[in-house]
Amino acid sequence: MTTAVHLEQALAKLKTTGVRMTPQRHAILSYLLDTMTHPTADDIYRALEPRFPSMSVATVYNNLKVFIEAGLVRELTYGDNSSRFDADMSEHYHAQCEICGRISDFEYPPLHDVEEAARNQTGFRVKGHRLEVYGVCADCAQVSTH
Q1: What is the mean pLDDT of the chain?
Q2: Is Transcription there in the keyword field (predicted)?
Q3: Under DSSP, is residue 138 helix (H, G, I), strand (E, B) or coil?
């Protein structure tokens, strides 16, 4: 599916939840849909600041919260205390480079049996799970071998 189709679907969903689409919100959402880098709020701010000089990092955070609550964006938290954001809401997993921090998506059949095992063994009402793989990306591996 193209970014334009995803954007139109997202705009329609926001309209049904009563969220007003401002130029800043449109730019933030478009940026997230266009990028595969899983940016931080600071990354988004720096990318959009030339077009929106009056926009603050707080504005970016506040709009990201609106998108998360609307189910359009996923927040990824890692050990470095910096949240990253992903507008790809499909079921997929992430691999993170331990050197440069790059996060890449990868497809694998959803591990629903893990959720079922957790539910059965703990009695939890399982809402979901997250799988991350850690290692060294191809670019960093190439640099470290030279």
Answers
A1: 88
A2: yes
A3: helix
User: Is it the case that residue 145 has pLDDT exceeding 70?
Assistant: no
Whether residue 93 contacts residue 108, with contact meaning beta carbons closer than 8 Å, is answered with: yes
Let me know: does 22 contact 30? Beta carbons within 8 Å. no
Q: Which residues does 64 contact at the CB level (< 8 Å), separation at least 6?
A: 28, 41, 44, 73, 75, 85
Place of tokens 């959720």: 115
- Asked: is 93-144 a CATH 3.30.1490.190 domain? The reply is yes
CB 95 within 8 A of CB 106: yes
For 108-127, how does the pLDDT look when each residue is reduced to its tens digit (9 = 90+)? 988 999 999 999 999 999 98
CATH entry, 3-86, from 3.40.50.1110, 1.10.10.10, 1.10.3720.10, 3.30.470.20: 1.10.10.10
* Whole-structure pTM value: 0.77
d(CA 53, CA 55): 6
